[in-house]
Amino acid sequence: MKRSFMSREQRQRGAATLVVVMVLFLVMALLAAYANRSLMFEQRISGSYYRASMAQELAEGGVEWTLAMLNGAALDDDCKPVATGGTRFVDKYLNVSAADRATTSKVTTALPGLAVDCSATGAGLVCRCPAANARTTQPGTAVNGELVPSFGLALGTNTHYGSFQVIGYGCTDSSVDNCVFGDQEARSQKAAAMSLQKVSIGFVGAVPSSPAAPLTVKGVLTTLGAGGLGLHNTDPRSAGLLVVSGGGAPALNEDRLDSVPGTPSSQARVFDDVYLHSLGNNTQDNTKFFRNFMGMAPSRYRNHPAAYEVACAGGSCGTQLLAAYDAGQRILIVRGAMAVDSNVTLGTVAAPVLIVVEGDVDIAGPMQLNGMLVVLGDLRWANGGGGGVSQVTGMVVVQGDMVADGRMDIVYRQSVASELRNRVGSYARVSGGWIDEDTK
């Protein structure tokens, strides 16, 4: 009996000790939690900072992405470049006046008027570029429980002509709509962060000072063959000027010259222009002539954000030029000489193209160009044997000499000059034109 009583007493003392130890552990845990409450708070804050930084990066990245799209090629509805059938970003979402560069957004949906959106997945950006006012709610994306941030872009107006605002919304949720249109309580429950960035974008025209005549030749203009060179300018704003040349007067067919009604063609021609001939010399590296129309030296003009370099290594370059135009490129630069001997039509009056050739140009056959051709070397243009119409609707500028052999026409259009000055060009950030909004 005594042995059983002692065993029971020892078990009771062990249970009491266990209870005391557990209580002590609980007290120590509470003390440790209380002592490290700041650590838990910092962990929560660091998580918020991480999401806020991610949202800000997405907003800034969205603005840069938009700038690249504005200067890029034609796109499909997935914001991917296509060889044919696409639409340029600027044409899709902006109304740009060819008269004064006034720019407004085509998106008229309820504020904030998101035009496009993208989500940053592990495979890269997944973007949507629907037609203006056709955007729907961005679907959510889940990738193994990881954050899939997104951004949305809206285009706003500015008080200065030729500039507008790009408004980027960065969001840590996979659907930017949950950040932009969701209330703050809903974002808080999802621990989602949103950042807003506003940047002013300015326009840099492809041809800041377009020539007032259909043909400008710094050197000597020579005409050969049957049919003759036709020059046509009936626009009174340019005084009907037909040709300006630094060389002597060639033989021109009066029946192929059209100026403002009532103005003799002899009064619409300027030859032996000393000032034009002296534009650019060895001291000035022969770039002043180019800068007179294009606003900068050729070496800097290549850096136009929207400029596209066309490779014309051997043979006719007509196919390459047409492919670049169909892909949405409007400023084409050819490094070196260029030859075109195919029946190709480049550009339209409503959407002209600028071609800058840093060498000699040889055109043979019925090529048609709507826009402006700038030749830094010599130009030889031949169209004989009844091969069809060979015509430039716009302007031709030649820094060297020009030989026109056969029948060809240059028709001046003020609308083409306005398009090249106010709608065709590049977009860049305006210095000091950004606003960092609060991250929410």
Can you offer a commentary on this structure?
- This protein is of the alpha/beta class.
- It has two domains: 51-206 and 426-436, no CATH class; 215-423, no CATH class.
- It is 27% helix and 30% strand.
- The chain has ten helices and 27 strands.
- It has helices at residues 2-35, 37-70, 89-93, 176-180, 184-190, 274-277, 288-294, 298-301, 318-326, 414-422; strands at 74-75, 87-88, 94-96, 103-105, 114-121, 124-128, 150-157, 163-171, 194-205, 215-217, 221-224, 229-232, 243-245, 257-258, 269-270, 307-309, 331-334, 338-340, 345-346, 353-357, 361-364, 368-375, 379-383, 391-398, 402-406, 408-411, 425-436.
- Strands 10, 12, 13, 14, 15, 16, 17, 19, 20, 22, 24 and 26 form a twelve-stranded parallel sheet that branches. A six-stranded antiparallel sheet has the order 6-5-7-8-9-27. The chain has a five-stranded parallel sheet with strand order 11-25-23-21-18, with no helix packed on it.
- The radius of gyration is 34 Å and the shape is elongated.
- The mean pLDDT is 88.
